[in-house]
What we know:
Elements: H1 2-8, H2 10-43, H3 50-64, H4 72-86, H5 89-103
Amino acid sequence: MRDGWVMRNKWIFFVGPLAIVAFITIGGEVVMHLWNWLTPMLFGWRQIDFWQAIGLLALCRILFGRWGGGSHRSRERWQKGDRWARMTPEERERFRQNMRARWCDVGAPANEINEPS
């Protein structure tokens, strides 16, 4: 069964790497042209070449995360929202009470904070 999928989709093994190279090349060119168009005029910085643009693109990927497909955190947020939607009103109220018990002093004005005796 698995071998049949590979035989039917051989083109993916050829087109996939080409698409990755094309994406990196186009992305590098876009970054380079935008940088060379904007930063020398706005900030007086020097222009960059293609390989520096690729490095800048990689640095942005490292610092700011994924390029697509959503992140792990966004999936977690969605799952929490889905869990909230499935809760009964009693479960929601119990959840709120537990959160208030844990975080009652967070964000409260100074005169409303309960001082320990």
